[in-house]
Amino acid sequence: MGLFITFEGPEGGGKTTQLPLLAAWLREQGCDVLTTREPGGTRIGDAVRAVLLEPTHTEMRAQTEILLFSAARAQLVGEVIQPHLARSGVVLCDRFADSTLAYQGYGRGLALDVLRQITDFAIGPVRPDLTVCLDLPVLEGLRRKRGGAAAEWNRMEREELAFHEAVRRGYLALAAAEPQRWLVVDARQPVEVGQARIRERVAGLLAAGLPAGR
Ligand code: TYD
Description:
214 residues; binds thymidine-5'-diphosphate; alpha/beta; Rossmann fold
């Protein structure tokens, strides 16, 4: 029944580097690989993504944000992920439901049980077999993404830093609660070192024939 792998983590961890490297390796192993990302990955999801990430939408409520992320996810699962898994393919997804728990739950402080209910409604029975968390200290990640010295950041950016710290702590808590599903990779290591750890874990899943957690 296919293999579903998600990539998660705070900003600047290198998901967009590691995910294609894994996809290329899996294709060499003969897997039928589909890569996608959240929010987006479908026509409707891309339209929702534009609404979500538009910098001028400062009035967006946290509730609206969750429902929009979940709407994009519901579409992606039904239109792309589930059909590919049903064909015994491998799906690699840049962010998935754990992003909502980490960012909206741990980051914005919204109740995790409510978020889980909304997320479960959106994704139905589809669950990742493996979730790779590319972890690194928040300051390093934000610097990688934006450049610039932290000392020059303004008040908002400092607030944002606390938010991102909470997101990172959230990811580590989620990973600790479900170690059989998660692989936490230190994203400060060279890319090849991280990639080797990921491949090792994925090779184990492929060899077992049966994804962990199913
Ligand atoms: P994106 O540009 O894709 O960032 P990244 O390269 O870090 O994935 O923007 C996605 C942003 O949306 C990112 O900051 C994480 C956030 N996000 C949530 O807050 N909740 C979610 O459920 C998802 C999927 C993403």
